[in-house]
Amino acid sequence: MSSTKKIIVITNSFLLAAGVESLALEIRGLLVDEVFSGSEKKLCEKVLLKKPDLIIIDPVSLGEHLIPTLRTLREEPETLIAGLVSESMK
């Protein structure tokens, strides 16, 4: 079992991704493995192939695909999912 926890970030916001990566560098044992955009084709498949420990999702980036994506990603029992909003949701 690896002591490094892999994080996947799903966002269209460069600043949000850079901020999460910067924070992960400050905490021993965290690694941002990859950043995906919310509009990426076959997003769920790509994310689950990485076998992340934590998925950080910007709900705004997924738009109308948020609920189906979350349902699919929740099927992975060892993976935690957190939402992080990069802008005001109106």
Task: List the defining traits of the structure above.
single chain; 90 residues; alpha/beta; 4-stranded parallel beta sheet; globular
Summary, kept brief:
The protein is an alpha/beta fold.
Question: What topology emerges from the helices and strands here?
Answer:
Layout (H helix, E strand, L loop, with lengths): L4 E6 L3 H13 L3 E7 L6 H7 L4 E4 L1 H4 L3 H8 L6 E4 L7
Parallel strand pairs: 1-2, 1-3, 3-4
* Neighbour order of strands in the largest sheet: 2-1-3-4
Shape, principal axes of CA atoms: globular
- Helices, by number, come to 4
Low-confidence stretches: none
Give the strand tally: 4
Rg estimate, integer Å: 13 Å
Content of β-strand: 15-25%
Report the structural category. alpha/beta
Query: How would you state the average pLDDT, rounded?
Result: 89
Question: Largest beta sheet, briefly?
Answer: 4 strands, parallel
CA-to-CA gap between the ends? Answer: 42 Å
Following the backbone from N to C, one meets helices and strands in this order, namely: EHEHEHHE
Helix percent reads 25-40%
Description:
With 90 residues, this protein is an alpha/beta fold. Helix content is 36%, strand content 23%. It has four helices and four strands, in the order βαβαβααβ. A four-stranded parallel beta sheet has the order 2-1-3-4. The longest helix is centred in the N-terminal third of the chain and has 13 residues, at 14-26. It is globular and about 35 Å long.
